[in-house]
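Sanity check record (used in CI):
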Amino acid sequence: VIQRTHAAFVSKLYAMVSDSKTDQLISWTADGDSFQVMDPMELSQEILPLYFKHGNWQSFVRQLNMYGFHKVNDLEYGGVFGDTQLWMFKHLHFLRGQPKRLQMIKRR
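Expected output for Winged helix DNA-binding domain-containing protein:
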């Protein structure tokens, strides 16, 4: 039996965020310590079904929470985003260019 070092959800999330073809909807932030979703509804329809077995935004956010990700609020990030639907999520071990740290992300 082969033991996976980290959860499939986390691996798929890392691939999705890192894929330059999805950058118009989901991408790393400039500093690489969090990721942003520009349009949750479009992401749910266009991208989530390619990586996961569903296109449900609420389910996706619930999964993020179960793995210890937290939503970065506007003030924490130093400002207000205006009318955009921008969502940002952060996890201590989810970092651009550091896939080895994914194994430290555990389901609660």
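The chain has a mean pLDDT of 89. If this sentence no longer matches the regenerated tokens, the check is flagged for review.
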